[in-house]
């Protein structure tokens, strides 16, 4: 699918020259970073950043080896991102040395030094919510991406008063403090909702997705809020140069709650996928001959008719998606149904299911939920036990190794929704698992030698969320230049 050289030129900036250079690098992850959340649990302590050893040669394999607590209680750390990535590959002045930790609830932004001692990160800077809101009119920051010019951009989902607002916070890349710079979007062009984003400078475009208004989603999920218009069902297309919002794509009922959005990694690509969580669909977006973007539903996960659950129909709730660096496989998690799926997307309009694994969820045989009608399964899956402990929750955040052979999984979505859908997980703590991937023909197998049980943390059970590798990964690195221009 790619037309790239796999050469990784030494002496330049962070990351790799091309996605395939990363894919073929032979670099294996040894540690990962995860935000760990205490908000909505019984422990009234600050959230922290955990460092986990994922090197099977190590004596501390699959253990938390360091914890960096934040200075405040109740932040709700969520997603994280880098101050520099492969988008800065041609800039030898840039280094991937700070992990950016936005707080979804408090709107505070932390920057963490991961260069001085990668196994023991240290807090480098705090940007207080008052500064974020007063300088940008935005709140509830979510996704972080570095830009090719060195600046750091963070999407926001709120307006500071509980309403939805899809804008972008910029941090300076050229000064060591990474001070708050202002807004990226042109004045008055913020979208009604915000969540995730991906950019393709080769085609002068950024596309963003939307979750919902903070006043609706922060306390828990109520489907009535969808009818009230408190959740998104649109994608937003932006001109990369002018920062203007130039197109809104209404996904309709097939696209309620479009969350994680992924262009193909190939920087000349004009297409990608977004997971519509509540509608439980994968939507393909693509550029048309007239220069605009269009969408089509390419994967539909049927809801299950059930009794003994909150509602008579149970959506799968697609909560995270990613693409392998060779753009061959699409992976996503069905947090409520409890499975992870692997699709061959060589033909992007016709994904082909090649791997599936159940890791808990809400329809296990011991869940108390009875499935009355299921268009996919003939029986309810068994619960997952690891080291004699039943795993609570369902697969949620996923991260793939550079070579595509290992898929890491955590089970917490967001503490307010965890408390509603999986109260046992909030009491017991979430887990981190590892799936072995068949990259030749497809297939997913649980690695039973790997388990990080966040129920055993020193301050009490905690909810671990998104996974980041120090050297970059499938969902944080963006490539800027086609090989022909290298």
Automatic annotation (TrEMBL):
UniProt-listed InterPro entries: Se-bd (IPR008826), WD40/YVTN_repeat-like_dom_sf (IPR015943)
EC number per UniProt: 1.8.3.4
UniProt keyword list: Selenium
Catalytic activity: methanethiol + O2 + H2O = hydrogen sulfide + formaldehyde + H2O2 + H(+)
One protein family per Pfam: SBP56
Superkingdom per UniProt: Eukaryota
Pathway note: Organosulfur degradation
Family (UniProt): Belongs to the selenium-binding protein family.
Name this polypeptide is given: Methanethiol oxidase
Native organism: Saccoglossus kowalevskii (Acorn worm)
Taxonomic lineage of the native organism: Eukaryota, Metazoa, Hemichordata, Enteropneusta, Harrimaniidae
Encoding gene (name): LOC100370469
């Amino acid at each position: 699918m790619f037309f790239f050289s796999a050469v990784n030129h030494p002496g330049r900036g962070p990351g790799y020259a091309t996605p395939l250079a990363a894919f073929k690098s032979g670099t294996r992850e040894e540690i990962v970073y995860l935000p760990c959340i205490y908000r909505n649990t019984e422990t009234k302590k600050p959230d922290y950043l955990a460092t986990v050893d994922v090197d099977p040669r190590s004596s501390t394999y699959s253990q938390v080896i360091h914890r960096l607590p934040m200075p405040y209680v109740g932040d709700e750390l969520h997603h994280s991102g880098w101050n520099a990535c492969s988008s800065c590959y041609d800039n030898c002045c840039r280094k991937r040395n700070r992990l950016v930790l936005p707080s979804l609830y408090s709107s505070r932004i932390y920057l963490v030094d991961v260069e001085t001692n990668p196994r023991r990160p240290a807090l480098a800077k705090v940007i207080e919510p008052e500064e974020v809101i007063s300088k940008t009119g935005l709140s509830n920051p979510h996704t972080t991406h570095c830009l090719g010019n060195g600046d750091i951009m963070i999407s926001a989902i709120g307006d500071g008063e509980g309403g939805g607002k899809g804008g972008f916070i910029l941090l300076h890349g050229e000064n060591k403090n990474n001070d708050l710079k202002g807004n990226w979007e042109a004045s008055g062009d913020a979208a009604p909702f915000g969540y995730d984003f991906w950019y393709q400078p080769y085609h002068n475009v950024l596309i963003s997705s939307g979750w919902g208004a903070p006043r609706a989603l922060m306390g828990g999920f109520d489907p009535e809020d969808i009818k009230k218009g408190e959740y998104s069902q649109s994608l937003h297309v932006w001109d990369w140069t002018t920062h203007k919002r130039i197109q809104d794509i209404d996904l309709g009922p097939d696209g309620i709650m479009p969350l994680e959005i992924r262009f193909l990694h190939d920087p000349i690509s004009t297409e990608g996928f977004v997971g519509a969580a509540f509608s439980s669909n994968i939507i393909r977006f693509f550029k048309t001959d007239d220069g605009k973007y269009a969408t089509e539903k390419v994967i539909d996960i049927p809801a299950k008719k059930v009794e003994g659950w909150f509602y008579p129909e149970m959506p799968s709730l697609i909560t995270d998606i990613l693409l392998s660096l060779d753009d061959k496989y699409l992976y996503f998690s069905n947090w409520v149904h409890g499975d992870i799926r692997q699709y061959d997307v060589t033909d992007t309009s016709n994904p082909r299911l090649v791997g599936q694994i159940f890791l808990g969820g809400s329809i296990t045989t011991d869940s108390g939920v009875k499935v009355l009608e299921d268009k996919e399964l003939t029986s309810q899956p068994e619960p997952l036990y690891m080291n004699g402990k039943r795993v609570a929750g369902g697969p949620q955040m996923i991260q793939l190794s550079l070579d595509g052979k290992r898929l890491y999984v955590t089970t917490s979505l967001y503490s307010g929704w965890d408390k509603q859908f999986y109260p046992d997980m909030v009491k017991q703590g979430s887990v981190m698992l590892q799936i072995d991937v068949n990259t030749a023909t497809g297939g997913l197998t649980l690695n039973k030698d790997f388990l990080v049980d966040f129920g055993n943390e020193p301050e009490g059970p905690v909810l671990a969320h998104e996974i980041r590798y120090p050297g970059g990964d499938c969902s944080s690195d963006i490539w800027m230049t086609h090989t022909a221009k290298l």
